Amino acid sequence: MKLSVTSEAWPIAGTFRISRGSKTEAMVVVCTLTAGSYSGRGECVPYARYGESVEGVIAALNAVAGHLYDGIGPEAAQALLPAGAARNALDCALWDLRAKALGVPAWQLAGLPRPGSLVTAYTLSLDTPEKMGEAARAVASKPLLKLKLGGEGDIERVEAVRAAAPASRLVVDANEAWTPEQIAPFTAAMARLGVELIEQPLPAGADEALSGIRSAVPLCADESCHDRAGLAALVGRYTHINVKLDKTGGLTEAIQLARTAQSLGLGLMVGCMVGTSLAMAPAALLGGMADFVDLDGPLLLARDRDPAITFDGSVMQPPPPALWG
Length: 325
Known about the structure:
By secondary structure, this protein is α/β, with parallel strands linked by helices. The chain has ten helices and 14 strands.
């Protein structure tokens, strides 16, 4: 089996800003596996928050090239790399390769329902209340908006967005920026403003402060939830988890994480890093299991792949077979 690993830079339409910083391009790594006349691809986004870099991910993938052989499946590849971006690219490339070689859709091979159209959230970057209100007004027709928050001033930010987009459903993502003292007043304000979900209010590792808190808005673990290993500790602190393939290390673990979370009574959001349609395609297979879908990465880019997933406004169509799976 031949392995090819490349890095790509995809320009973002404007600036993507969260509590930890901002960027104007999405740096992705693409893994391509070729066996005979068939090739499979997987895309990942290395994330500095988790100690990852483009160079490190490329090196990790190249290091396992000698362990790949014709017929190897995603399940066997789980032992080659730890959960994270590098394994995600490899795992998704193996799913794509298997689907193409067998002539069977990846969703069917995975034992998942046939993917249908999904309504994805549309993300508004962190900014001043005034600018976030202006941004919301420009996309007020979108049914679900996700607001990036940053701590002080967050109530005013959400108030501005709510006034500008009164018909849109809202979820917010603090990206670890709140303090324990802000939880009670901020969650109460979010409830008043009709927010349906709050992602990762506290820093990962500080989840114990959420024990016993009765939030008026459901809380979703993102940075605090990577794979099944730490899932049990989140019960009683969060109501939902955000399943991202770049955290789980691919579709294989993501499926098991989603099923285990549901068995523990946790709801699901299926999320993404900012990447192209190639990264969204395998994640879309989990959309039917989720309460919230946040796969808007391509909508935030200045351009996407060809072929790409079709978005009719916020409605995401199933990925075309020529793209993945």
